[in-house]
Amino acid sequence: MLRFQHIEFLYALFLLILIVAAFVSVLAWKRRSVKKIGDKSLVEQLFTGYSKRFRNLKFWLLFFAFAFMVTGAANLQMGDKMEKITRKGVDVMIALDMSNSMRAADVQPSRLARAKQLVNRLLDEMTNDRVGLVVFAGNAYLQMPLTVDYSAARMYLQSATPGMLPTQGTALDRAIELCQQSFNQKERKHKAIILISDGEGWDNNAIAAAKKAHDDGIVINTVSVGTEQGAPIMMPDGNYLKDDKGNVVITKMNDKLLTGIAAVGNGLYQHLDNTDEAAGNLIHELNTMQKKEFGENIFADYNSYFQYFLGIGLILLLLEFVIPETKKRKMSLKPLNG
Predict the structure, then answer these.
(1) Three-state DSSP class for 141?
(2) Which pLDDT belongs to residue 82?
(3) How far apart (Å, rounded) are the C-alpha atoms in residues 175 and 137?
(4) Is 135 found in the same domain as 71?
(5) Residues 64 and 106 occupy one common structural domain
(6) Which of 41, 124, 126, 242 is deepest in the core (most CB within 10 A)?
(7) Which domain holds residue 277?
(8) DSSP string, 65-126
């Protein structure tokens, strides 16, 4: 099995697009500058010895050197020893509100950013629990099924944005129902939902969905994020969200609904003020639940191959350093007059 130990480093590869764009822009700027000076063929004669081929070669050497160095930093690994691991924990589905109202900045840096900080803190504290992720707005979507791969969970969490959901709204009932469907339907224990939302809008079906889930043996914990005073919603285009009449929309937290869901689900409700404290309270709730044993075949021993990628990257950098941008001039020999 292949994996990257530090998969988050691979995001740096997107910089390669900017590097190529910058290189192309510089070439276009040089061509425009040459045209402004005068006749292209005459101007190019001024740069005797300059080699476009060497220039392009040096760029691509730097390009691939950067790619190999980043890949090496991510550390490609291959598992060579599989072991049967028995864990004791609970199954936890995290339902994260991705509606536009979560863009509001009445808590810094935004409601959604604070919610993601909480989930990351939870993942830091989890050891044997399986975790899954559901994102929701006007509808709910399974972002990640139950797993103990917390690195993958962080990756899915990082990539989740309100813009990825086609329907806006706050469908708490659908989020709870999808979480319920994501558990093992044959079990009636060891299951918990952590619902993180600003609770905006009254969802008449949410309480009923929570009661049905609890009847299926699921404990529902809720976390509210935002303020009662509310705030406008800054959209990605830099403008505030407006209603049909052109008025700026002010979104306010609805903690009453989330409190009711937690009460019906026999779980903990809390407002997200201090991330560490909120995460600690949730972990305490999970630890008080009855654990179940589940076994997994996992690779326990990995061989790292970062050194090969770093080595290739260094060789490419060395080649780029020794290759000149100018051609060698041919020396002409004149006969000596005796």
Answers:
(1) strand
(2) 63
(3) 9
(4) no
(5) no
(6) 126
(7) 86-295
(8) HHHHHHHHHH-EEEEEEEEEEEEEE-EEEEEEE-SGGGG--SSSS-HHHHHHHHHHHHHHH-
Residue 81 reports pLDDT greater than 90: no
- Per the domain annotation, does 332 fall within a domain? no
- In contact, 5 and 304? CB cutoff 8 Å: yes
Residue matched to tokens 């529902």: 220
Backbone φ, ψ for residue 42 (5° rounding) = -70, -40
327 found inside a domain: no
| Chain mean pLDDT for the chain | 86
**What six digits make up the tokens of 303?**
């061989």
Q: Is 91 exposed, middle or buried, given 0-12, 13-18 or 19+ CB atoms closer than 10 A?
A: buried
Provide the CA 121 distance to its chain's centre, in angstroms: 15
Q: Are 134 and 143 in contact (CB under 8 A)?
A: yes
| Domain total in the chain | 2
Do residues 30 and 97 both lie within one domain?
Answer: no
Calculate what percentage of the chain has a pLDDT beyond 70.
86
Pair (167, 245) in one structural domain: yes
Classify residue 134 as left (phi > 0), alpha (psi -120 to 50) or beta. Answer: beta
Nearest to 196 by CA among 157, 146, 163: 157
pLDDT tens figures, 294-315: 666 565 567 888 999 999 999 9
Say if residue 239 is in the same domain as residue 149: yes
Instruction: Specify the residue for token string 């005073």.
Output: 229
Instruction: Please report whether residue 106 resides in a domain.
Output: yes
Res 44: pLDDT: 59
Measured distance between the N- and C-terminal CA atoms of the chain, rounded to whole angstroms: 78
Residue 300 counted as domain residue: no
146-199 per-position pLDDT tens digit? 988 888 899 999 888 888 888 887 889 999 999 999 998 888 888 999 999 998
Domain containing residue 177: CATH number: 3.40.50.410
Q: Do 169 and 205 reside in the same domain of the chain?
A: yes
